[in-house]
Design brief:
This protein is an alpha+beta fold. The chain has helices spanning 57-74, 114-119, 124-131, 140-150, 152-157, 164-173, 180-183, 198-204, 241-248, 278-282, 305-313, 319-327, 349-359, 368-394, 411-421, 432-444, 451-461, 475-493, and strands spanning 2-11, 15-25, 32-43, 46-49, 52-55, 80-84, 90-93, 99-100, 160-163, 219-225, 231-236, 256-261, 265-271, 286-289, 295-301, 400-404, 424-427, 465-467.
Length: 494
């Protein structure tokens, strides 16, 4: 029998956690057991500093060390540590390893208008052909252009650029590493070479010496030395949390799609090839890096962020009761396009939703239950739109959708997904990004052969719920309404 103890540091845009995984395989039995235990969970709150929305990296580092130190004090001998976080955000450090400038969040408004200005210098088509990455105003490409325009003095002082998980790996080990899956979210990585694109770096004002060629996940750049004198390998896993979540999603083939559901809903397929042709660009599909040479062909959907913000503004604590009330609101009465830029970080999400409905000539949701129903129905409609786009890209229909992450606990939204997409839906595991982080470590340790084997282990050890599609007779009418909303938004964007 062989047992591995592994720590996963999983940071989301609203919270973080340090988790302990215990993996045991009996020599005479090919079956394996995998368990998770939460060691430390903590909030991740934005701070307003010097007019910008920023991350509190020092607080996050303290929480990370608190979780690891608890494990060390318990006497558990860790075989590895892995870190995954959200994408697109970065940290600059100088030649002495000290931070330079502010760790600004993607929800900051500093990139307003930057994307349009850059496209006047290099066309949208050229950028997409180079990167295959979805156009979003907060992509790292536009954040760095905003930085170079607004704070050139910071650019002068910096020596290295690290994505958020690479920064924390550096803080634990003292080693510089730029990991591929998170680097692919920047819209600066050339999809053909897997290296940084020189033209885009120049366009963003990024010195080439800040960066080295991104490394594939599955190796240990350095060691964390614990207070009790233990040296633990820190693995460069699939450091983008969605990339890790996909590793743990129980996909069964090219007919399977996933939704990594949380603050964002990332919906896509795993593909051996990228799609960066004109049709994919029209649908704003992104081709982010996966493990073992795969691509995460997906769309970023403004997920439960809308619901979280509404509940926070209205001081609603009992979310299950609100969801129950939303079920009783007539379906598809209120519709918005959740991916409108107005919902990225408005002063009031409630006002933004009501304003969007009013401007589109839609009924306006007033009560909390109506607002919640509007969000869930609109997300489900957007899931259907993306499902249609993905089926068109791969040339075959989707047969099932696997919802993973914290949002997979929302049974009402899961059923709406099955209903609108008219396919079978499974939900779980909840801690998908943590599990994928662990899976990458196990593969690096040769304890698990590949992602397919790890997915079978996850499916055996963690519960899934299943949802069958129901028929809504008046759905075609509501679908046409939603498509008209999306088309109107496209026209406005042009």
């Amino acid at each position: 029998m062989r047992t591995h103890h592994l720590a996963a540091i999983d940071l989301g845009a609203s919270s973080g956690r340090v988790m302990l995984a215990t993996f045991t395989r009996h020599d005479a039995d090919p079956a394996a057991t995998l368990t998770l235990k939460e060691i430390h969970r903590f909030p991740n709150n934005l701070m307003h500093v010097d007019g910008h929305e920023t991350w509190d990296l020092d607080a996050l580092e303290k929480h990370i060390l608190e979780g690891l130190n608890r494990l060390d004090a318990s006497g558990i001998q860790l075989d590895g540590i892995g870190i995954d976080t959200w994408g697109v955000d970065y940290v600059l450090i100088d030649e002495y390893g000290q931070r330079v400038g502010l760790p600004v969040s993607y929800r900051d408004n500093r990139t307003e208008g930057v994307m349009a200005r850059m496209e006047q210098q290099l066309s949208r088509e050229a950028i997409y052909q180079k990167t295959g990455i979805q156009f979003m105003p907060f992509n790292t490409l536009y954040q760095l252009r905003a930085l170079s325009e607004q704070h050139p003095e910071v650019v002068e002082k910096a020596a290295h650029l690290l994505m958020i998980p690479d920064y924390f790996l550096y803080r634990l080990t003292g080693k510089l590493n730029q990991e591929y899956t998170n680097a692919s979210t920047t819209q600066m990585l050339n999809i053909s070479t897997g290296d940084w694109d020189e033209d885009l770096l120049k366009l963003a004002g990024v010195p080439r010496q800040w960066l080295t060629k991104p490394s594939q996940p599955g190796h240990s750049p350095g060691l964390w030395h614990s207070p009790r004198g233990r040296s633990v390998p820190v693995f460069s896993v699939a450091t983008h949390d969605t990339a890790s979540a996909v590793v743990a999603a129980p996909l069964t083939g090219t007919h399977s799609a996933y939704i990594s559901s949380g603050t964002w809903s990332l919906m896509g397929i795993e593909s051996p090839k990228a799609f960066n042709h004109a049709g994919a660009m029209h649908d704003n599909v992104t081709n982010e890096g996966g493990i073992n040479g795969s691509y995460r062909v997906l769309s970023n959907i403004m997920g439960l962020w809308l619901f979280q913000r509404v509940c926070r503004e209205l001081n609603i604590q009992d979310l299950p009761s609100l969801i129950t009330l939303a079920k009783n609101v007539p379906p598809f009465t209120y519709l918005i396009n959740p991916n409108e830029d107005r919902f990225i970080n408005p002063p009031s999400m409630v006002d933004a939703i009501r304003e969007a409905c009013g401007q589109a000539g839609e009924p306006v949701p007033i009560s909390p239950a109506e607002l919640a129903r509007c969000i869930f129905d609109s997300l489900a409609m957007l899931y259907r739109q993306v499902a249609v786009q993905l089926a068109k890209l791969q040339g075959e229909p989707l047969r099932d959708i696997h919802i993973v992450g914290g949002g997979s606990q929302n049974q009402f939204l899961n059923q709406l997904c099955a209903d609108t997409c008219q396919v079978n839906v499974s939900a779980g595991p909840v801690e998908a990004s943590t599990l994928g982080n662990i899976g990458c470590q196990l593969m690096a340790l040769d304890a698990v052969k590949d992602a397919a084997e790890f997915r079978r282990i996850v499916a055996t050890n963690f519960e899934q719920r299943h949802y069958l599609p129901r028929i809504h007779e008046d759905f075609p009418i509501h679908w046409r309404r939603f498509q008209a909303l999306c088309h109107a938004n496209e026209e406005l964007a042009v």
